[in-house]
Amino acid sequence: MGLFGTSGIRRVVDKNLIQLALRVGLAVGTVYGSVVVGSDTRTSSDAMKHALISGLLAAGSRSGDAGVIPTPTLAFATKEFDAGAMITASHNPPEYNGIKLLNPDGSAFDSCQRQQIEEMILDDFLSVALWDKIKSSSIYGRAVERHIEHILRDFPGRLKLKVVLDCGCGAASMVTPYLLRKLGCEVVALNCYPSGFFPHAIEPTESNLGDLMRATREFSADLGIAHDGDGDRMMAVDDKGRFIPGDKLLALFAREVGAKEVVTTIDASMTIDEMGFSVARTRVGDTYVSEELKRGGDFGGEPSGCWVFPKSSLCPDGIYAVARLVTMASRQKLSQLVDSVPHYPLLRGNISSEGVEMSKLERQLMAMEPLSVSNIDGVKLNFEDGWLLIRASGTESKVRVTAEAKGEARVRQLYDNGIRAIKECMEASKEE
Fold it and tell me: What structural domains and CATH numbers belong to the chain?
């Protein structure tokens, strides 16, 4: 069984995961001579972090402990090391934890690097360094300060905006409130203290951010901002208290940075194509976006809230995205910017993946007579007036269903047809 999903290792915390953290440390420490380690605020993160650091040290690697910080902050610190390791399960529930491995340019370990570490662990190709080669750990305490300084060099400050901020008691609590105040903003803080007990589901989706939308309206704020557990994601609410879909944020950021070439995922809206950008599409997952940006591109992101600014870092940086967004909102009302982006009806959902065989499902879906089919990630059916994507989740036992069309009735038809095909495929598998 593969250890790595679309964004590192993620599992429910148990003794096996703690043991795996030690083994990951041994494998990474064998290959990389210096590694900086950070963690989010989950109750299990300290145990996971120390297990991983023990492995690094035992393998003969030098380790720096950066403490509780967001993933993009750790990515910036990794510039001074051979690799970085972040203890986090990102937007998964608090009973989960995991490990993200990073390169000095901020990008996640690519497929070859992941395969090397995975093979070392699964084949038990692990060893401990000789006693006189084992290193000691040190505290790396400059990460937050240096990340904020780096961001402030790109933005002038003195913005005078009122911002409602919901960090979900995650790692961004350690950075974003201070950055916003440095930029001149008045901050109305919701859940901006580190705690492993998230006050709501930590994924920054519209259904999870009702308090943020209400507070943005009630405080007459210029915008609202939300992070996930490790701060690599950032989603927002406009000055009218409306949740801003990720597809619109993707277009706004691309336009703001003057991008010509945009890298995004296969599930992103066709809006980005119709706005005149040259678009390269990847599998779903920020790892794949970053890999493609290494080959070229001015900006990358995915609608889930991961935004990659390659001139700053190849790590999705929800903290940098905050500075970029408040700067935009200081020049023009965010609601006006949002309304200036074309919109097509889009539906996203998921269903249990038990009994779903993608090859059989694809054959069944061909009855819809698409103009073309893409298999970059799952099955995407392209039609003259829209598209339907069905793909297996890389982090959960679910099948993701996304549909977009140029009319409400048509998008509902595509989406319902996709759900119906999955259920029929599941029923057929039970009968077999």
Answer: 9-141 (3.40.120.10), 145-339 (3.40.120.10), 346-431 (3.30.310.50)
CA distances from 297 to 105, 302, 326 (A): 15, 14, 24
Could you give phi then psi for residue 257, rounded to 5 degrees?
Answer: -85, 0
The letter for the amino acid at 369 is: E
Q: Running DSSP on this structure, what letter comes out for residue 101?
A: E
**How many degrees, rounded to 5, is the angle at CA 64 between CA 58 and CA 65?**
100
246 burial type by CB count under 10 A (0-12 exposed, 13-18 middle, 19+ buried): buried
- Nearest Cα to Cα of residue 341 among 289, 269, 265: 269
Q: What is the DSSP letter of 368?
A: G
Catalytic-residue membership of 90 = yes
User: Phi and psi of 352, rounded to 5°?
Assistant: -55, 140
Report the distance separating Cα 198 and Cα 204, nearest Å. 12
- DSSP state at residue 199: S
* Candidate list 90, 173, 330, 353, residue with the active-site label: 90
pLDDT tens profile 145-191? 999 999 999 998 789 999 999 999 999 999 999 999 999 999 999 99
- Residue 176, class by beta-carbon neighbours within 10 Å (0-12 exposed, 13-18 middle, 19+ buried)? buried
Strands 386-392 and 398-405: antiparallel
